[in-house]
Amino acid sequence: MIPLAVMLLQDAYCRARRLRREEMGASVIEWALIAAVSVLAVSIIAVVVVDIVNKKSSDLNDCATQVGSSACK
Length: 73
Known about the structure:
- The protein has one helix at residues 2-65.
- By secondary structure, the protein is mainly α.
């Protein structure tokens, strides 16, 4: 009777460990998805900022090359 109880307790312990491990796997997947979305958002923001900076730089360069133009004020 005692060996059966020990065996059942060991089985329950192994199942609990397996469930905990499976939840950790789901947690890792959630963190990976969060990281991927964050990287995507930062990439999009960076592209927009670089585009704005390039446009303003081009505008300033055009103004610098036009001598006496009042359009650049």
